[in-house]
Amino acid sequence: MRLSSVYLYEKIKEKYEIQEKGNLSGSDGYLRPFLRCGISKEGKKSEDGFRTGHVYVIQGCDADEWEPVSSKAEDIFWIFCKRKDADREEEEAVVGKGAYIQVALERLEEIAEFMNDMQEIFDAADEWERKIHDLMLEHAGMDRLLQVTSEFLQNPLTVMGLDFTFVAEAGNEYLPHRARLYTDDGLNMEYVNALLQNETYCEMADTHEYVMFPAYISGCRSMNRNLFVDEKATHRLVLTECRVEITSRVICVLDILVEKLEYLLAHEAEEEDPDRDMEQIFVRILSDRTADYMQVSRELSELGWSGNHEYMCLILQITYLNQQNLSTKAICRYIKKKLQDSVSFLYQDEIVAFFNLTRLGMDQEEIAGKLIYFIRDTYLKAGYSRVMEGHMNLRRQYVQAKTALDVGSRKKPYLWIHYFSQVALTYILEQSTRRLPGSMICHEGLLELKKHDEENQTQYMETLRVYLEEHLSATQAARELFIHRSTFLYRLDRIKEFLQSDLDDPEEIFYLELSFRLLEQEEEKE
Question: Is the pLDDT of residue 156 over 70?
Answer without folding.
Answer: yes
